[in-house]
Structure formats: C-alpha cells, structure tokens
Amino acid sequence: MGxxxxxxxxxxxxxxxxxxxxxxxxxxxxxxxxxxxxxxxxTCRISYNIAKCDKMGLTAAPRDIPSAVKGFDLSExxxxxxxxxxxxxxxxxxxxxxNRNLISQxxxxxxxxxxxxxxxxxxxxxxxxxxxxxxxxxxxxxxxxIMSNGIKAVTLTSFKPMNSLKFLDFSHNKLKHITKVRxxxxxxxxxxxxxxxxxxxxxxxxxxxxxSSLQLKALDLSQNPITDFQITANVFPNLTWLNIGGAxxxxxxxxxxxxxxxxxxxxTLDITGLRMTLVDNRTLLGTVNSSLSSLRMNAMKNNITxxxxxxxxxPTLSTLHVRHNKLTYVSSDLFKLCFNIREIDLxxxxxxxxxDDAFSSLQSLKTLSLSRNKLSSVPYATRTLPSLGELDxxxxxxxxxxxxxxxxxxxxxxxxxxxxxxxxxxxxxxxDLVQLQVLKLQNNHxxxxxxxxxxxxxNLRQLLLNGNQLTALKHGEFRGLQxxxxxxxxxxKIFNLDKGCFVGLTNLTDILxxxxxxxxxxxxxxxxxxxxxxxxxxxxxxxxxxxxxxxLPSAPFSRLSRLETLAIPSQHGKGKSQLPRxxxxxxxxxxxxxxxNIQLASLxxxxxxxxxxxxxxxxxxxxxxxxxxxxxxxxxxxxSLYVSRTSLRSLDYLTGANLxxxxxxxxxxxxxxxxxxxxxxxVPSLVYADFQGNSFTCKCDNAWFIKWVEYYNQTxxxxxxxxxxxxxxxLKGTKLLHFDIRSCSVDAGFLMFLSTTCxxxxxxxxxxxxxxxxxxxxxxxxxxxxxxxxxxxxxKQPPNQYDAFISYNTHDEPWVVRELLPKLEGEQGWRLCxxxxxxxxxxxxxxxxxxAIYGSRKTICVISRRYLESEWCSREMQVASFRLFDxxxxxxxxxxxEDIPTDELSPYYRMKKLLNKMSYLSWPRAAEHTELFWxxxxxxxxTREDQADESFRLTVVDNQW
Length: 961
Known about the structure:
Blueprint: H1 5-32, E1 38-39, E2 45-47, E3 50-52, E4 71-73, E5 81-82, E6 95-97, E7 105-106, E8 119-121, E9 129-130, E10 143-145, E11 153-154, E12 167-169, H2 179-185, E13 193-195, E14 203-205, H3 206-209, E15 218-220, E16 228-231, E17 241-243, E18 254-257, E19 268-270, H4 278-286, E20 294-296, H5 304-311, E21 319-321, E22 329-330, E23 343-345, E24 353-354, E25 367-369, E26 390-392, E27 414-416, E28 438-440, E29 462-464, E30 472-473, E31 486-488, E32 496-497, E33 510-512, H6 520-523, E34 536-538, E35 565-567, E36 592-594, E37 616-618, E38 640-642, E39 664-666, H7 677-681, E40 688-690, E41 696-697, H8 703-711, E42 715-718, E43 725-727, H9 748-772, H10 774-796, E44 802-807, H11 813-827, E45 832-833, H12 835-838, H13 845-854, E46 856-863, H14 865-869, H15 871-887, E47 892-896, H16 902-905, H17 909-917, E48 921-922, H18 930-942
Parallel strand pairs: 1-42, 3-4, 4-6, 5-7, 6-8, 8-10, 9-11, 10-12, 12-13, 13-15, 14-16, 15-17, 16-18, 17-19, 19-20, 20-21, 21-23, 22-24, 23-25, 25-26, 26-27, 27-28, 28-29, 29-31, 30-32, 31-33, 33-34, 34-35, 35-36, 36-37, 37-38, 38-39, 39-40, 40-42, 41-43, 44-45, 44-46, 46-47, 47-48
Antiparallel strand pairs: 2-3
Helix pairs in contact: 1-9, 4-5, 10-13, 10-15, 13-15
C-alpha cells in the first residue's frame, strides 16, 4: 500500500459516513415535508400512468420511461426493430401498443420481462414470420392484436407461452392456408375470440383446423375468398358470434355443415357480401334456426327479398341488417314474413320511396334505421309501427315536417333527423311524441322554431339544434320541455335572447351556446335565471366583451348556484377587455372556469371571492401582464391552471397563492426566464407541468430547476429536453438541460473531503510547528508587538528614562543585588531599571517589558542556564534583539554568570546567533580581574547613541566557542 493509502481509506470512509448521515437526514426531512421533485422525458409524456409516445417519429423505444408505468403507447412511429433491452426496465407494464410502425424484426425474448402484460398491439407493421421465442414470457397476456402485417409463417411454438390468451386478432395477413392457424390455436386453451379476417383463405375445413373442440365464442372469417366451407365435426360447441362474410369474387361458396347442431348456439351471424346460392343460404340459416337473434346481410348479391323471407322464418331472429343493398324502393313484400323482428337497419340503400304498407307486418318493431338514403319526406309507412321506439331518418333529403308525420308515435323515444334540409318546424309537428326522450335536429336549415317546443314533448331529455340558422330565442320558446336536461344551440346565428326564453327549463343541466353572436347585453337581461339546476354553460366564440372591471348592477349568473362549468373563451371583437368583479357572484359550486383568448388585460383580485370550489381555471391566450397572489386566495382547491400565451414574465405570483392542491400547470409560450425553487415548492402537489416555448436563461439562477427536472420523479415536466435558452446571447439556442450547472454548486462530498483534508493538514502543521518552530513563532509574535510598540514609543514617549534595563532570572537576583547594583548605581551612578522595583504594576507584562527596554539606553542580559530556560527572559532578549536590529545601535550588553559549553547552547539558536556576531562579558573568567570587568561594563554603558556606526568590541575574554 502506498504512503497515502491508509489516509485515502480514512477519507473515503469519512465521505461515506457523511453521505450516509446526510441520506438519513434528508429521508427524515422528506417524511415530514411534501416531496418536491420533477422529471422530464425526452420524447414522451405520462398520462394516467400511461407513457404516451405516439406520433413522435421515433425509430427506437425510448429508455427514459419511468419503471412504474402501466401502459406504453408507441403507436404511429418509425420503429424498425424491437430489441431485448427495449422493455427490460418496465416489468409492471400491463398494456403495450406498437401499432402502425415499421417493425420487421422482434428479437427473441424481447417481451420476456413483461410478465404482467395483458394487452399487446402489433397491428400494421411489417412482420413476415413469427419466431419460436417471440412471445416468451407473456404467460399472462389476454389480448393480442397482430393484424395487417403480411405474416406468412408461424412456427409451431410461437404461441406456446400465451396460455392465458383470450382475444386474438390475426386479420389482414397472408396465412393462405387454414392449417397454419392450427399451430396458433393448439397452445391457446383459453382463447375465446379469434379474428382471421382477410388472410387469403380459399378453403375452410374444420379437420384442418383442429381435432378437438375449441372454447371459441367469436370467430371472424370475413373477407376471405373461401369457396369451400366444410364443418365436419363439432369443433365450435360454444360459438355464439360468427362472421363469414365474403370477399369480392365471382365464385360462390360451397357450404357443407355435416350436422345442423354444430352452430346451434350461434346468436349473431354476419354473411355480408357472401356469394352463395339460395339453397346453401337456406341450409346455412337452418343450422342456426334455434338460436339466431341477429343477422347481417349487407351488400348481398342474391335477391334480397328472397333472403329476407328465408331469414324471417327463423323464430328467434330479432335484429336484421340489410345495409348497402341498393334498394331504391321498399315494397310491401320485402318484410311481409318478419312478424317477430324488433330491429331493422336499412342504412345506405339509396331508398327514395317506401310503400305505405311496407312495414305493416312489423308490429313488434322497436328500432328502424333509414339513415343515408334519399327520402324527401317522412315516410307514411312509419306511422303503421305502433311499437316503434327509435327512428333514424338522418342524412336524407327531407325539407319539411308535417303535423301528421309522427302521428300515433306515442312510444317513440329517440328520433334522429339531423343532416337533412328542414327549414322550419310547425307548432304541431311533435304533438303525439309524448314519450320522446332524444330529438336530434342538428345541421338542418332551421331559422325559426315556431313554437314547436312550447306545449309538447314533456319527457324530452336531450334536444340538439346546433348547426342551424336560428337568430333569436323568444320568451317561452322551450316552455313545454319540463324534463329537458341537455340543450345544444351552438353554431347558429343567435344574437337576441328574450328575457324568459329559457323559462320552464328547470331541469336543464347542460346548455351549449358557443359559436353564436350573443353580446354581454343579452346576458345582463337575466336570461339564465330560470335555469336553477344548470351544471354546464358554454358561451365560447360569441361577442361578449366588458370594457372595465366595475361591478354590474345585477350579476348575470347569480341564480345558478349549481353551475359547475362556465366557459366564455374566444370572444370576437377588437380591443382589450375586462371582466366585472362580480361576474361570478352566486356560483358557489363552480368547478371549471374558462376565459381563454378574450383579450383580457387584467383580473381583479376579488374575481373568485364567490367560487370557493373552483378546481380548473383557464386564462390562457390573454394579454395579462401581472397576477396578484391574492387572486387565488379564495380558491385553495384549484387543481388545474392554464396560463399559456400570456404576457406574464414570471410565476412569482404562485409563491404567495396557497395553491397546495395544484396538480396540473400549463404555462406554455410566455416570457418566463427563470423557474425558481420557491415557485416549485409553493405547489407541492404538482404532478404535471408544461413550460414549453418560454424564454429561458442559461445561468445559475436556473440551476436548481434544471437539476429538479433531470433527477427527481414526482412531477412530469413536459418536453423539457427541448427547452431552449434565449439569454445570454452567446448561448441563444442552447438546450436548457445541456447547460453545465456544476460550476453553480459545490459538491457536498468534495467539500467534506476538502474540509477533512485541511483539518488534518492543519493539525499536522500545528504539531510540527509547536515541536520545532514554537520559538520562531514566539519571536515573530514579539517582533511584531515590538514593531508596534516601537512606533508608539518613538512618537509618544521620551527616550532614555534609564541608562540600562537589567534582564535576569529571579534565581540570579542575589548577584544582581549584591554585585551589580552597588557597582553600577552606587559607585558609577547609572540609573538602572529592575523588574521588582521599577516596572509599573497593573500593566500587561509584555507592555511593561517593551516599555522598559525602549525606555532605557541599553539592555543588560544577565545570562545563566536558568536564564536560558526561562520563557520570559527569552522574550526580553527577543525584544532587545529586535531593537538592536531595528535601530542598528549598540544597545545590547551580554553578561554570562556561568560558563556554558557550545553543545548546551545548541537548542538556544537565537543566543548562539547573537554570540556569533557580538562580544560579551564573562563573570566567571573575570574572577581575578573584577575591576577590569566593571570597567569594561562601564565603558559599554557609556557608548553614545549617535555613534551607531561605530563597532564596539569587548576584548576581556576570547569569544570563540
């Protein structure tokens, strides 16, 4: 292990410990606070736990889909191949849609990890062969759609893993031989519905399909050019739905059903377009004689009258479809045997005329469809149907309705008259329709209702009048419709609403008035006051425009306390608009309010004071410059907010809006440049956000938002990978999520490593310094103090208060008192400064020392072993040394009381350094010449200060060490 190995281990361990502590701390905090997190998909969006990736031009399955999704929609893309790795991270999928791609290859085991998949759609691709392990792992699949691929071959074990499959659509492929289906169904014991439409089968022999009974309930063999259809065994004992409608061709089908009981449970049979002789038709219908209830004989090539006669002899038959048979005239003979029929569909037959007694035998008929024909009036024949409950006359050429057109239709419940050319209604036209519940009159030419709804239709629930040319609604226009719940009047030309035009509609819940010419003055009349149970009111695309936000004299919707949806977007007119502050007064149960694109300039902060239940608000496509947080205070239950295409420059108003329940936020194409942390934290329940098309800034102000979008997973940020920066100019066009945010934040782990390393190094440096350099530091400290005090004393204190300051250790005080003081003060007359006598009490020791040294002409250091060991003596010498070096004068006198060998002076390098540059006096060596010692000391004290450049050398003793 290298020299730093153990230290690196300790550092890594410390970092891991820090991360672990941080993780548990954040986990604890997150358990107390609502999670604030986001995520973005590069190409898809999540809706109701389904990943929506359809119509994106994808060439491969995206890999950034959250693993928790239940559905994955990849339809209408350009995927060529399905890889093993495409879905391995989505084990919880229950439905997968790959419809309309270019898939020609699926790797073995590509679906192996999808053990919970229930539905798989592979329609409209380019698969040709199904391999052995293609569906490996799909043991719980119940529905497989694989139509329109051009599949020609299926291996024997392709479908073996799917033993739970119930529904299989294999239509529009190229199997050609029914024997290939055998390898499919033999491994599907639970199969109930099998669709083999248009696979180019020319024969169908039951023994080629299987040797055992199948549990199929529905079988579709339509649009196959089958010429030989043989059932020789009871392989479909549970079949109830059978479609063997033919494909275009000239060769008739040869039919052979060995036993009439083989189809004894079939209740729905479709033989649309089948080419078969009347004899074979009779034989086929004879096999279902005891069970058939619904028969479709559309686009038949045989005599339709003869086929109808054969069909109507089946006693259980109740529904008969004879569409697309080119009937232009309905005679009395066509249905003369259909006594038990309850539903007939004659849609798209080009019928121009119906004999008056054509339906006289249909006394049990409940439903009749004559849609998409060429009738010019309501046929008289319908009046002979006393039990008729539903009549469809849509998409004909009817121009008028007479008072007797629906005479005696007292049981009629649903009447469709839309897409005709009806110009007016007579007041008596619906007089007998006392049970009618649904009336559809949309897309005609009605310009006046002529009182048709004033006194009849007491049970009508739904009335559709949209797409006509109505211009006005008169007082009491709908007075007779006491039961009406849904009224559609959109796409007319209504501009006049008389007060009381909706009187009587006390049970109305939905009214659609969009795309008309209604103005605000019409609404102010109180026209909606009678709609006390109204739940939905649509007023988009009209001419409703207010010029200021002043309160109206009378709130237009004040009586609609049960209204839940109010929409008045996209109003026509020039100039900016306002909304009266009391517009919503009385709407205490309003849930949805839509005012998109009405050139709105502002919203008064009191606008929603009366709508406490509001959950959805759309104010997009307006010219709003600012919104007050107070605007949202009365609506704390808001869940969806649309603020796209406005002039708003920020979402700061959310920070004080108390929208804690907001889940959906759409704010496309605004001027937002920064999405701050405070904004996101103000909406803790947000699950979907759309900020597409804003002018983002690539700066550190957006660093938190970028990190939030990329790494967290509660809130989906739609299309975030395509967000572009507009600022700064050098980054214009750069993708926001490509902006490098590493320079905007400090890595916590690195910061911890750095601080730990610095602490360790500081500890090591401190230890080293204390052990080896503590005297250097002490000297530097006092050097600095001396410098400060030197400046102070030069400027403020008079020099030379004493001739000498005596620096000595207390153990050497007897020598100083008995020898030094008598000679220097007593005999020679010098003024000396001594610790115990002259230093000022109460002052700091350091300051006393510096004052004494700088207040004396000389400093005499009385040196002994104890002196060298004394900390304070050492500091006195350091200050005196500094003065010596600073003033470049002979101000320091060294007097040794003991002979100290060189090796003992080695630890005291500063003293040794001084002795290498200066002479000194030695008391032990002057034992026989004490008078000379005192004389030399006197001469040293007499050295003048102005002779700083003169070198004074002592010669009493040899200074070599």
